[in-house]
Please model this.
Amino acid sequence: MQLLNAPGTRDCLPDEAIARKRILDTIKATFERYGYSPLETPAIERFDVLSSKYAGGDEILKETFRVHDQGQRELGLRYDLTVPFARVVGMNPQLKMPFKRYQVDKVWRDGPISKARYREFWQADVDIVGCAAMTADAELLMLAVDVFTKLGLVPVIRVNNRKILEGLAQLEGLEDKKDAVIIALDKLDKLKREDVLEELAGITGKDKAESILGRFTVQGTNEQILDALPQDNELLQQGISELREVLAYCAGADNNDKQSIINTQSTKDKHLANNKHLANPIVIDTTLARGLSYYTGTIFEIILPGSEVKSSVGGGGRYDKMIQDFLGGNQQFPAVGISFGVDRIYDAMGGADKKTTAKAYIIHFKNPQAGFDLAKQLRAAMINTDLDLVGRGPSKCLQYAQSQGIPFVLFLGEEELAQKKVRIKDMTSGTEDTVGVADAIARIIGSQD
Amino acid sequence: MQLLNAPGTRDCLPDEAIARKRILDTIKATFERYGYSPLETPAIERFDVLSSKYAGGDEILKETFRVHDQGQRELGLRYDLTVPFARVVGMNPQLKMPFKRYQVDKVWRDGPISKARYREFWQADVDIVGCAAMTADAELLMLAVDVFTKLGLVPVIRVNNRKILEGLAQLEGLEDKKDAVIIALDKLDKLKREDVLEELAGITGKDKAESILGRFTVQGTNEQILDALPQDNELLQQGISELREVLAYCAGADNNDKQSIINTQSTKDKHLANNKHLANPIVIDTTLARGLSYYTGTIFEIILPGSEVKSSVGGGGRYDKMIQDFLGGNQQFPAVGISFGVDRIYDAMGGADKKTTAKAYIIHFKNPQAGFDLAKQLRAAMINTDLDLVGRGPSKCLQYAQSQGIPFVLFLGEEELAQKKVRIKDMTSGTEDTVGVADAIARIIGSQD
Model:
C-alpha cells in the first residue's frame, strides 16, 4: 500500500479545516438569515439523471466520476448541486412554492488537476424556485453582499441581463450568430479591447464589430449605462426594466436617490477595497455574459477588487426554463440562484487558521484529576479547553500549547491547588498572574483572541 | 430519465436537514469544547488504501463502492473515517502528539438496504492518537456524556476492557477459542441467558460454559463488579486497574465517594431515563465485547434507555495497534476514539423539525420595497426572516407562513407604514398587535420558539 491521496484530492488538516468551517458556518447562517432552508442530497446519483439532456452538458459529463454498485447499476458522483436540486423539485410536488433552499456540499469532477483545481471541491448554492418576480433576484444580490460583508471582505457584484445581450444581438441582425458574439464579448474581461474587436470582426465584419463594442462598453453610473442602451426591441426593454427593478430594491427605499458613482471599468481597482462604505457594490456591466449556460434573465458575478484572488468568487443568475426542460411536462419552474466559490473565498480570507479552537490549555503537574476538574469548569463556561493528557513536564506542555497557538495556559501546581487558584499565562503577551478560577474564566472570555 | 434516487440513498428535505444540522452543530461544538480539531479527508480514496490488510477487513471491502477516474485508476468511496485518519497520521509526521481530531462526514457502504440502513450515511468520529494514558479514554467518556446531555438525551455508557475478556478466556484455558467465546458473550445483549449458555457449551463444554457465564454476569455497582472479578493473571489485573482509573477520572475529585448504584442488567430499563440526575451514567458491563474489531483496551457502547431507539447510539474504544499495523514501521500510535451514530441520534431526538428556521414572515401588500426595508432591520437584529417575494394576497401569504411553521407574521399595510409601525401576529396564540419595529424585534427575540 502506498500512503497517498487519490489524484486531485487532498486532506484539510485542522488549520485549514478550522478556517474553512468558519467560512461555511458564516455562509450557512446568512442563508438562513434570509429564510433559506438546508437541503441534503446524496453524493451518488443515477447516471441517467446526471446525463440527462438538460443537465450539465457533454463537457461536464466527460468529467463525471462513474460509480457502480454490486447490482452493476450505472451511477455517478454529482458534479454540481443544481441537477440534484432540480431532481428534488420534480420528485416532491408537495413542496410549497416559492421553495428557498441552500446546499453547501462537495461535488466531484474528474478534470485536469492544477494547484487551484481539485477533483473534489466545495460548492455553496442558494436558489429560489417558483418566483418569477425580480424581488427574488434582488434578495439574492442583497444576500451575497451580506455574506461577504460578514466575512470581512468587500465585494463588487457585476450584474447584467441576458435579455439585453440577446436584444442587442437582435438589433444588429445577428440572432443566428449571437452565441459566438456573446462568447467574444465575455472575453473583454481578460483580453484587450483590440483583440476582442478582432475576434468580433471575424464573426460580424469590421463595421458591425465596432458598433457592437461601442454599445457594450458604455461607461458611467448604473443609471448612465441604462440610459445609454437602445430600447429598440422588446428584449432590450424587458432586460433594462428588469435590471432597473433589481437595482432599485437593492438600493433600498432610503437610497434610491444616491446613485452609485462607480465606473464599471474600474471595478477591479484596488482602491475600491479600501472604501468600506461603498455606496453601492452592485454595478452594471453589459459585457458580462457568463458563458453559454442556461441563464434567461439577470446574471451576476462577484469579485473582490481588493483581494489577491482575481477570478470571481461567486456568480449566478436567473434560469426560468432549465428545471422545466429537465423535468419535462407543462409546469413552469422559474428560478434564480447563486453559487459561491468556497475555495476562492478561503484563499481571499488568507488561508489557514490556528491548529485548534482551544482557548485554554491546562498544565496540571501530573495531577490529571485536578486538571479534569478545572477543565470541567472552563468547558461549562463555554471555553474550548484542552489539557495535558499524557502526563508531560511543564516545559513540554508549554511547547505543545505554543505549537497549537492556544492563547492561554493555566498552571495548576500544588501551591495553586492549596489556594484554590490558578496561574494564568497569556501566551501572546507572556504575562503571568495567579488568580481565582472565576477571574481566569472572565479573562479568557474577555480576550479578543 | 427516471426521477429516482440511487438505490439506498435519499434526500433530506429541509425539515429533516434542519433537525440533523442542529444535532451535528451540537456534536461539533462539544468536540471543540474538549479541544478536538476538525479534519477533512476526501470521499474518494485509493482502493489499495481502503483494501489494506489492516484496514476495514473483507466484509467491509465487499461493500466498498468502486470508482474509476479517466486514468482508469482503482479508487473507492470511504466506508469509515478511521482508515482515512490512519492514512493522514502516516502522511503527516509533523503533527504534534497527542493529535486530537474529529471528523463529521458521510461514508458509503454498498450493503443490503433496509428502512434503517442506507448506503450513504453520517458518521461523527472523535479520536486521540499519541496518548497511551487512561486520561484519554476518560476524557472521551466525559465528552460523550456531555454530547448527549446537550442534546437533551440521557445516555448510559456500558464500559468494559478487552484485557478483562482476554484475561478471563486465558484463566479458563480457552485462549485458542477466545474469539468464539467473545462472540457468544456479545450476544447476551440480545439473546436469553439459556441460549447463550447453549452456544457457549458447544464451544467449551457445559461445565466451563456455566463457569464463564457466572464470571461474566456479576451484578452490582461498578465497584462490586470489579471486586468480584478474579485477578489471577496479568491481563485481568491490567484490565481491572485501567477500568478503575477511567471510572475515577469520570466520577471527578468530588464524586469519588459517591459510587454508582446502577445495576448493570437494568441499564436498559426505562426508569433510568427519568432520572436526570443519574449519579453516574457510566456502568461496567463485563459482557460487552464489541465484536472482533481491533480494540485492545477500554471498550464502550452508548445506549439511550429512555428512548424508542434500542440499538446503540455510539461506541468505541482503545486501539493501540491498528494504526501501527496499518502504516507498518516501528513507531507506536496508541489511540482511542468514539463514533457517534448520527442517524440513530436523529431518530431518538424525534426526527424532523420545522421546514424553515425563519422566525418572522413579512406580508407587505404588494409593496416589496417596504418589505425589504423591514426585513433588513430584522435580519440586522439576527432574526431569520422571510418575506413575500411573489406578491401574493395576504391570506395566501398567511397560509404559506403557516405551512412553514414560521412563528411570527408581520403585516405592513399602508396604515402601519404611515404610522411607522407593524402589525405582529403570533402564529401560535393567534393574537395580533400593532407595535413599533423595535418592539416587534424584541418580542420575536424574546419568544421561546
The CA atoms of residues 221 and 261 of chain B lie 5 Å apart.
